[in-house]
TrEMBL record:
UniProtKB keywords: Activator, Cytoplasm, DNA-binding, Nucleus, Phosphoprotein, SH2 domain, Transcription, Transcription regulation
InterPro entries: p53-like_TF_DNA-bd_sf (IPR008967), SH2 (IPR000980), SH2_dom_sf (IPR036860), STAT (IPR001217), STAT5_CC (IPR046994), STAT_N_sf (IPR036535), STAT_TF_alpha (IPR013800), STAT_TF_CC (IPR015988)
GO molecular function: DNA binding; DNA-binding transcription factor activity
Chief location category: cytoplasm
PANTHER family in UniProt: SIGNAL TRANSDUCER AND ACTIVATOR OF TRANSCRIPTION
Protein localization: Cytoplasm; Nucleus
Cellular component aspect of the GO annotation: cytosol; nucleus
Family under the similarity heading: Belongs to the transcription factor STAT family.
Start and end residues of each SH2 domain: 558-659
Any Gene Ontology biological process: epithelium development
Name used for this protein in its record: Signal transducer and activator of transcription
Source organism superkingdom: Eukaryota
Keyword Cytoplasm part of the UniProt annotation: yes
Length: 720
């Protein structure tokens, strides 16, 4: 009953819309007196398309009749007597109307409740836009489905009105022909004797006058019917356009955005089944209304009656064509995008799909899709409908494909499986622009005929990459975190401290306050064109190097939380100096792309009683291909605790390589390499306590080569 209470508070146009829901098919008095019962019934549980559900609908109809009769019996007094008669009459009327088709009652009540709910929600949002409930996906889907039900009822209503108009016009034409016959009879009276002529003429004139009065009145009625029907079509098309805006400009655009983010490491964009179902419903309803408008035009041509309807019909025809054109061109989409980076002579694939392909008879004459590669400038010109001629910026092999209709899924799509970029035509680069910054677009084009060649649409899929000159730092943080988690395949993303470290690196800043970076913007040049201060690489090259190192060698350690990573040398020193000797941590190198270093605290061998933080020269992918991080840490006995206080065995032992046995076969012994660091008077340590790993690895490789030689050449045939 809560909904009915709110519905009674509606005002203005919303109130009129609510009132128009009721009539002889379902009196508003029934809604009022049975509000609580009606809102408590499981109308949504009945599938209107399933005839086997009719027994459930019959049960609801019987319950409705019983409730009405019960309500009527309880009416007392003079006013109650009249209401008792009225409610009893409604019970009989509803039983007579819906007993043969109880599912229609369910359809009617569902439409009423859905529309009331929508009107109440819209009124609530308009009065307090900031206080409404959060717009969750299920609620949004329910709203879309409610609007479809409303559109279905409106379309059925105009269909009924159109049939009524057609029948009235047919009867009018019959009567008009009768008036012509009478006129012909009057004209023929001149050839008969006067006495007989007067007698017959009087009767014919009387019939003619009566008929002309009727024709005049009926012509006005027909014009009124036409005008009312045209106005109803206006309202239907307005709601269709609104619904299409929600589905195409909101839901489909959001899907495309998710698809873009998925290509950069975001979650999957999700399927298209729901979107296709909505688009197909739109196509059905738009086409039904278009056919209705065409039938009204035919009736108007068949019986011209001067008035404003002709102009209104022309407007309606243009509107419905515009709506269906927008639907067809917007639902030609790229379901599976080609790779973001294309290489010549390398095969790649893509899939395009028409979401309304199963409707409008498009699949009866499957269209062909062509793929071409064009420059970013050409793509931008296409968006502005500028003439770009037919020049392409390269050549793609196997770039034509016929769309196929898949009966089981109801999809119309073209699968380009073996496309290959044969050549690319590059423009002259200016300034500091590198070859990787020049962007191209794979453009998919096709031509569809709709409704038996009634309408033909030339469609193009793919918009150019939009790379803004600057973005807010928080936006870039979101993208970096998404990319990092996706590439490293980890649920552990970048923490706030990690992002502050990245901001310090990107902006050459020393601030530790995250708020200081919220409104800062970073340009493309800062991101991947200008080298970081004192380095020969950019911010992105450094970050991408970290990603490559992590995903190839250190993924498990990152997931375990063993790698802090995003720290500078001073931060590492401050953290370690408060910990016991032998405490160490892992941080990414500032000076080398894709490098990670071990920092640990220990005694200063050159000054008794003084402690200092040591830093190994960075390990890279090349180093970890020889010996893993876990094995290296296990080799270094002076590393005891992973910061802050975890014994290293607890963290790394499960990743260590089992020790080799001393078994010998075929005169060879398997070598073993171990990480060794000499810290006392070691020339490989610089003045800041950095150990040059490269020199020791050269030595290790020499040892390895030596150990690979046959034993007899090493030890004169001795066996170990």
């Amino acid at each position: 009953m809560a909904l009915w209470i709110q519905a009674q508070q509606l005002q203005g146009d919303a109130l009129l819309q609510m009132q128009s829901l009721y009539g002889q098919h379902f009196p508003i008095e029934v809604r009022h007196y049975l509000a609580q019962w009606l809102e408590a019934q499981p109308w949504d549980a009945i599938d209107l398309e399933n005839q086997q559900e009719e027994f459930k609908a019959k049960r609801l109809l019987d319950g409705l009749i019983q409730e009405l009769q019960k309500k009527a019996e309880h009416q007392m007094g003079e006013d109650g007597f009249l209401l008792k008669i009225k409610l009893g009459h409604y019970a009989t009327q509803l039983k007579s109307s819906y007993d043969p088709c109880p599912l229609e009652l369910v359809r009617c009540v569902k439409h009423i409740l859905y529309t009331e709910q929508r009107l109440v929600q819209e009124a609530s949002n308009a009065s307090s836009p900031g206080s409404g409930p959060v717009d969750g996906t299920p609620q949004k889907y329910q709203q879309i489905n409610q609007t479809f039900e409303e559109l279905r009822v409106m379309t059925q209503d105009t269909e009924n009105d159109l049939r009524k108009l057609q029948h009235s016009q047919e009867y009018f034409i019959i009567q008009y022909q009768e008036s012509l016959r009478i006129q012909a009879q009057l004209s023929s009276l001149a050839s008969i004797p006067p006495a007989e002529r007067v007698q017959r003429e009087s009767g014919l004139q009387s019939r003619k006058s009566t008929l002309e009065v009727w024709l005049t009145r009926e012509a006005n009625t027909l014009q009124k019917y036409r005008q009312e029907l045209a106005e109803k079509h206006q309202r239907t098309l307005a709601l269709l356009r609104k619904q299409q805006t929600v589905i195409i400009d909101d839901e489909l655009i959001q899907w495309k955005r998710r698809q873009q983010l998925a290509g950069n490491g975001g979650p999957s964009e999700g399927g298209l089944d729901i979107l296709q179902a909505w688009c197909e419903k739109l196509a059905d309803m738009i086409w039904q209304n278009r056919q209705q408008i065409r039938r009204v035009e035919h009736l108007t041509q068949q019986l011209p009656i001067p008035g404003p309807t002709e102009e209104l019909l022309t407007e309606l025809n243009a509107t419905v064509t515009d709506i269906i054109s927008a639907l067809v061109t917007s639902t030609f989409i790229i379901e599976k995008q080609p790779p973001q980076v294309l290489k010549t002579q390398t095969k790649f694939s893509a899939t395009v799909r028409l979401l309304v392909g199963g409707k409008l008879n498009v699949h009866m004459n499957p269209p062909q899709v062509k793929a071409t590669i064009i420059s970013e400038q050409q793509a931008k010109a296409l968006l502005k409908n500028e003439n770009t001629r037919n020049d392409s910026s390269g050549e793609i092999l196997n770039n034509n494909c016929v769309m196929e209709y898949h009966q089981t899924t109801g999809t119309l799509s073209a699968h380009f499986r073996t496309m290959s970029l044969k050549r690319i035509k590059r423009s002259d680069r200016r300034g500091a622009e590198s070859v990787t910054e020049e962007k191209f677009t794979v453009l998919f084009e096709s031509q569809f005929s709709v409704g038996g060649n009634e309408l033909v649409f030339h469609v193009k899929g793919r918009v150019p990459f939009v790379v803004p000159d600057k973005v807010l730092w928080p936006q870039l943080c979101e993208a970096l975190n998404m990319k990092y988690k996706s590439e490293v395949q980890s649920d552990r993303g970048l923490s706030e401290d990690n992002l502050v470290f990245l901001a310090q690196k990107a902006f050459s800043s020393s601030s530790n306050n995250p708020e200081d970076y919220c409104n800062m913007t970073i340009s493309w040049s800062q991101f991947n064109r200008e080298s970081l201060p004192g380095r020969n690489f950019t911010f992105w090259q450094w970050f991408d190097g970290v990603i490559e190192l992590m995903k190839k060698h250190l993924k498990s350690h990152w997931n375990d939380g063993a790698i802090l990573g995003f720290l500078n040398k001073q931060q590492a020193q401050d953290m370690l100096m408060s910990k016991p000797n032998g405490t160490f941590l892992l941080r990414f190198s500032d000076s080398e792309i894709g490098g990670i270093t071990i920092a640990w605290v220990a005694e200063n061998p050159n000054k008794a009683g003084e402690r200092m933080v040591w830093n190994l020269m960075p390990f890279t992918t090349k180093d970890f291909s020889i010996r893993s991080l876990a094995d290296r840490i296990s080799d270094l006995n002076h590393l005891l605790f992973l910061y802050p206080n975890q014994p290293k065995e607890e963290v790394f032992s499960r990743y260590c390589t089992p020790p080799n046995s001393k078994a010998v076969g075929d005169g060879y012994v398997k070598p073993e390499i171990k990480q060794v660091v000499k810290v006392e008077n070691d020339p490989m340590l610089d003045t800041e306590g950095e150990f040059d790993l490269e020199e020791t690895m050269d030595m290790a490789r020499q040892v390895e080569e030596f150990l690979r030689q046959p034993m007899e050449t090493q030890w004169s045939g001795q066996q170990s």
